[in-house]
Amino acid sequence: MDSKLMDVGAERAVLAGLFAYGIESYVEICDLIDHKTFGHQNNQVLYKCLEKVLQSEVLVDVPAVLSAASQLGLSEAINTKQELEYINSLIQFPVKKENVVHFAGQIKKFEFARKIKSLAAKIGRDVDEIKGDENIDDIIGLIENPIMEFLREDETNTKPEKLGDGIEEYLDFLINNKCDQIGVATGFPRYDAVIGGGLRRKCVDLVSARPGVGKSVFADNVALNVAARGIPVLMLDTEMSKEDHLNRIIANLTSIPINEISTGQSLEDEEKFIKIKEATEKIKEIPYTYVSVSGAPFETITNTIKRWMIQEVGTDDNGQTNECLVVYDYLKLMSSSAISNNIQEYQALGFQITSLHNLAVKYDFPCLAFVQLNRDGITKESTDAVSGSDRLIWLCTSFSIFKLKSVEELAEDGPRTGNRKMVTLKARHGAGLMDGNYINMKMYGEYSKLEELRTRDEFIIHRETQGAIEGSELPFDEEES
To answer: For residue 277, what is the DSSP state?
Structure first.
């Protein structure tokens, strides 16, 4: 390897940073570099081992590195006196956490330069084989084609390909992997159907609501429904504490009012105490992870997601991300080192939804995110009833409004059709809802429970059908049991 096209000092600093700060530094650089970014072969091997360790551990030590080397079949390269002395020197090497990303970017530039040099060498070899009977276009193509191909490669090394390439393999995959729906089921079948078959990978489904309507209840109900099936869920919360979530989920599972749980009053009742103990045991078993991100810079939040994806979710034997769900409650103006203090709210939301969408695509996971409606959302049911609507709508896969039913709707629909409604205005993969139609939902606030009912149109059809059968029209609130 040409020593002029590597910076051994910068490589050393990156590795030292991983030893010093573990997963915290790794999540900041793992999208930028891989083992091939290192110019020195020994550093490539060591980075592979560090990656292996950090898939399950927070920090790195020598025994963990040796164990990882054994698992990767790299023991001969790592377990030598010289290499162990080098590793110990890295552990003692002083590097600031904030500089690790800078050094990673530095060695990335050298990797890019090495690729260019390799490409130039190939072009040189191809030119040396010219016999003289080629036309001018063929000769120009010797330099033009490889350079254009090189420039078309993006940071993930993916290249444009014909739509039909590999179509037979895709059909075989569909035949051998039949499923009822494509995305993760939320526990609300009508909502899943409307948005196109549940929460899909690489997608951000957005739900908006006014404060106090119950978007956090919806978030917790979805998270609980998903986690109860053994699918890992990450709840990123900007407002509520862990205790708030626990009180709500226990109330949901036991049908004991939240206030009785949070005050401890229910523990004096033996029957309720038994229910609560059973609920707590169930909560301990489900893969529901809560993180408070209140006031955190958005870059910190995305790093939290990466860390969870790497250590808690992982990939299958084919390298595909295991099934999971990220719930973000909720997108709002927060501090960020990447944006100025006088940033407008719509700009902050645009930055956040863009970052969240890109992360979902890169790590192949579904995300359910929430945002607050502005005051127009009290009466309006359109995409402009949320701050920064254009930027949010561009990148979300579905956009729904969760809101209280109006007095007029309650009177017209009847008491058995619920007190909330879900209006889906955009659904890239689903049919959405026709104007005037919505999913009726019943919220039991004191138990933090949300029940999905029929759509408004389904209730109308049901009423008319029942009225025709019985010879008279029934009140609109007569829902079947």
So the answer is: H
Question: In DSSP terms, which residues pair with 331 in a beta bridge?
Answer: 371
* DSSP letters for 52-103: HHHTT-SS--HHHHHHHHHHHT-HHHHSSHHHHHHHHHHHH----HHHHHHH
**How confident is the model over 21-54, as pLDDT tens digits?**
999 999 999 999 999 999 999 999 999 999 999 9
Q: How many CB atoms lie within 10 A of CB 29?
A: 20
Q: CB neighbours of 344 closer than 8 A, spacing ≥ 6?
A: none
CA distance 75 to 399: 51
Terminal-residue alpha carbon distance, the chain: 74
- Mean predicted confidence (pLDDT) in 58-73: 96
Q: What share of the chain is helix, strand, coil (3-state, %, to 5)?
A: 55, 15, 30
Q: Which residues are CB-neighbours of 92 under 8 A, at least 6 positions away?
A: none
Q: What is the pLDDT of residues 312-356, one digit of tens each?
A: 999 998 889 999 999 999 887 544 343 345 556 667 777 888 999
- pTM of the full predicted structure? 0.83
Q: Judge if the upstream peptide bond of residue 328 is cis by omega within 30 degrees of 0.
A: no
